[in-house]
Amino acid sequence: MTWGPFLLRRVVAFVPSLAALSVLVFGATELLPGDAVSAVAGPSATEAERAAVRERLGLDRDPVTRYLEWAGGALRGDLGTGYTGGRSVTELIADRLPNSLLLAGLALAVALPASVALGLLAGARAGRRADRAVSTGVLLVAGLPEFVLAALLLWLLAARTGLLPQVSLVPLGGTPLDAPEILVLPVLTLAVSGVAVGTRLVRSASAEVAASPWVEAARLRGITGPRLAARHVLPGALAPAAQALGLMTGALVGGAVVVETVFGYPGIGLELQQAVAHRDIPLVQGIALVLCAVTLATVLLADVAARALDPRRGSPR
Amino acid sequence: MRRPSPDPRGSGGPGVLTWCCAAVCLLVLSVALLGPLLASGSPTEQVGPPLAAPGAGHPLGTDVLGRDVAARVLHGGWVVLVLAVGATTLATLLGAGGGLWLGLAAEHGGEWVMRAVDVLAVFPPLLLMLLLATGAPDSDAAVLVAVGLAATPFSLRVVRAATRRVAATGYVVTARARGDGWPAVVRHDVLPNVAGTVLADAGIRFVAAVHLTATAGFLGLGRGAPSANWGRMIRENLPGAPLNPLPVLVPAALLAAFAVAVNLLADRLAEHLADPDITRSGA
Amino acid sequence: MEPLARRTLLRSGLLVAATAVAGPALLTGCGSGEESPARSDGKPRRGGTLRAAFTGAGAGETLNHFVGGTALDMVRARALHATLGDLDPSAPDGVRYGVLETIEVNGELSAYTLRLRRGLTFSDGSALTARDVLWSLRSPAEDPASLPVYKNPAATFDFAGARVENDHTLVLPTLAPVADGRLLLCQGNYLVVKENSDFSPEVATSGPFRLEEFVPGEGCALVRNEEFTHPELSDAPYLDGLELRSLPDSEARAAALTGGQVDFAHDLSPVTARTLGEDERFTLTSTSPPYVSGLFFRMNLAHEPFRDNRVRTAFKLAADREAMVESVFFGDATVGNDLLSPGFPDYADEIEQRPFDPDRARRLLREAGAEGMRVTLTTGPETPGMVEVATLYVENLVAVGVDATLEELPAGQLFADYPAYTRLPLAASFSVPTPALPLYQMSYGGQNPAALGWDRPDVDELVATARGTSGEESARAGLAAQRALWEEGNTIAPVFKPFTTAHVPGISGVAEDLFEQFPGFSRATLS
């Protein structure tokens, strides 16, 4: 298959996937007990006040109508208004998403080369000492829940030594890049758990390539060491690794909720957690939908990258 | 897709590390499962001033409300493990059932179902957990279901792939040609060949389940106060850590040791089980 | 008694237990004119930017405090907008006026006349008039989205009949005779916003500071409003700037303080406060009554056993209040007496303190045939200490033979499904500092669903009488109402907890701003 139809097929598949996820998001938020009325009207509201709020929010209509309205709005880039404060959800996500993308981007920028290097080191000499050390180390770190890792790093690098701030306070009117020190701990936490996942994936892909007759032939020709790894193992391993790293980006989205909560970093994960706590349903729906779209997009990109990196350029599957 | 890889330690038997991991797992399991029987005091009764240092009657000191940390640790592992095991069982049953069905009946709309499963796999697990656990507050069952459902698409994919490899070998075609019914085919020809994959996959899901259930406790989802739960204990006592670090350190160490050990064991198990699977499926 | 000594209780650590201090002394205080910050070293220092951290909303935050109920919303609003007045138990009227010169009430208690100080202006130099005051009180009452507290004045005053007599005079008729209208209007949260303001960052404001930078969910930067004229202090506010940061977690606020990212951390959890208390670099301040928040357990009268007053009394006697104060708040809280709002002038402190008497509780339960009764107490982490106090209370109940269990809901869920809340047999709740009798009317009387079945027209009548009359008659009715509440009420109010803040040394004049639960900075100095 040539690039054109491949890309077209992938992009076209994106749309129904996102539509299906939007139904899921909307349905799941309908599960929240009671309804948003109490959250909005306040505890001591009278029945009449509650009814007024219900009507104002449009909660008196059936879920299908509300879903269609919401989805229609989403297509036009309008995700409704949040209950608390009444700000536009789209605007609010636009405020917060860049911060989270920055965090995830930096974490990937650290984790990706590290994963490839470590994975290649281990995979190219599967079964030897270097592999054993890397694999075990990676498994050790991957075993730690993210919040334990975050608390550990926080204690070591901030609370105990005061090297770094414990709280990620962005300078008012600035971006996180204006105070890079606040990024260190969140990025480090995400990157460390990302490396743990990524290294395993790259390692198994390169171990498989390293055992292939092709690489065996190169080895017989006398090519060894780093040259063998870089020229012969890496190209074969990159494609499956790229696909797997797409999944890793998905895991970063979940990790962001925990990491942003622990460090108080003003990103979309922290916002989601607060929105759930305040039962701000339009906000929960909007953030969940955007997170799903971001994850779908990275999976798509990873697929494209995997194909571009595949030395055989065969069928994408 | 995840592919099996050669064992990093060659073909030798289980190493020292594996035995250590098994020992750690056993230790944590016994603390968690036998703890409620071993604990002498109540996990909710106040026995002293809050955040007191270890002393007579409370060997690990007291927690933020003056309750015995030792008693709470002994009572608090059970729920984390039971939830993780329950969620893994749920994911494995759904994944294996769906995977077998899809692997064998791929022609009849199976591709479409797989597309749907791929889409579900995109749904961030923590998001699902936040939504479901908020929907059913104060309920451990919601955490179990959320963790289980989040893992199901991944299980399903792995089992389906393995089933298709088995189906492609010809066993199934031969058996069908012999006139065996589907249940018999599944029981005699498919299941024995994918059991290893299912088991190895369950190990990986279990690690994720331990992580997610502990995170649920840390984020305050699931059964609330005064229940003891290692994840919850960490959250409750974190602010008081400078006064008495033990109510944070002990459950965190137990959780971390267990998760790390299970992770290493699951990896070894996956490799051990994967080898015959490769030969059998002729990859 | 020196009222300042009581209000500026600066504590480092836990040495001072805030047991009920105020009492009758509240009514006898002297004027508030002599107050000035940094009295010890003479002239207050001008300049500096103070950075402070509060619980705030997420990115949905707006500048409209009528709809935003977080501490940050209130503190920001009080910095941006001038107050009508604040409760000041030591002042002659019980209030200290802000933009107002005085409030007069007619003999029939049917109309209040608000007189503004002359020459007040907004930050853009435009005049602040009685129309702005009326709009600020009336518009939130008409907006369904605004918080209940801003709708309260409409329950007492007839805004449709309000008259703006001139730029400085506003007459507010009451719906029924009310004696404590001053307390109601000058609670500290009624502020003057420019008429028809849409709360965008550009709109002119009337308070001690004006907005420079606003980042929703993260905080705002304010600078001194040179147009602001302080009621008593000619050169206040002293600070050049104020940076208010939003940090929802108590731990995070403390960490920002210890990390040098802020100078002032508000509303710390008891454990965080205790931890910080051991750090000599910081000063801890706890508010004292009336600026305390009540933690309540309410017995639902729809639940059969609670219809028997012996059971209700047993549940009140079972609470080990001292232990709660000691264990949850490390001694830094006030023991409650099952009444609302200690420290306010209308609080009945003549009523004796309820003892901790588990034996009598057990006996009463036996007499009522309610031994071993099953009950679930439902609570949630809505304010620091709430879950902890409930946890201890359940243990207290078990100790007197009740089969009690605790159900903790996740944050934000307790009041979320309100009809479900009103059906709970035993439910936790909390109060913000509000005078006792208005609070009774807002949250307890008139078959309010929040009162879980309390339906006593006779007590409602007594409260209405107490609020609608003055002098001896008012006091007698108020006492009788609270006596009934104490004897037969369905509320257990074991603990009133302070708002604890920590700050770096050199900050003073914060407590002088009154309304201590949400600190104001119009008199604060940095040295």
TrEMBL record, chain B:
It comes from the Bacteria. The chain crosses the membrane at residues 78-104, 116-135, 141-159, 206-226, 246-266. Keywords: Cell membrane, Membrane, Transmembrane, Transmembrane helix, Transport. Residues 77-266 form the ABC transmembrane type-1 domain. The keyword Transport applies. GO terms for biological process: transmembrane transport. The keyword Membrane applies. One of its GO terms (cellular component) is plasma membrane. It is a multi-pass membrane protein. Pfam families: BPD_transp_1. It is found in: Cell membrane. InterPro entries: BP-dependent_transpt_permease, MetI-like, MetI-like_sf. CDD domains: TM_PBP2 (cd06261). Belongs to the binding-protein-dependent transport system permease family. This is ABC transporter permease subunit. It comes from Streptomyces triticirhizae.
UniProtKB/TrEMBL annotation, chain C:
One of its GO terms (biological process) is peptide transport. Pfam families: SBP_bac_5. GO terms for molecular function: peptide transmembrane transporter activity. It comes from the Bacteria. One of its GO terms (cellular component) is periplasmic space. Residues 99-423 form the Solute-binding protein family domain. Transmembrane segments: none annotated. Residues 1-22 form the signal peptide. Keywords: Signal. PANTHER family: MONOACYL PHOSPHATIDYLINOSITOL TETRAMANNOSIDE-BINDING PROTEIN LPQW-RELATED (PTHR30290:SF65), PERIPLASMIC BINDING COMPONENT OF ABC TRANSPORTER (PTHR30290). This is ABC transporter substrate-binding protein.
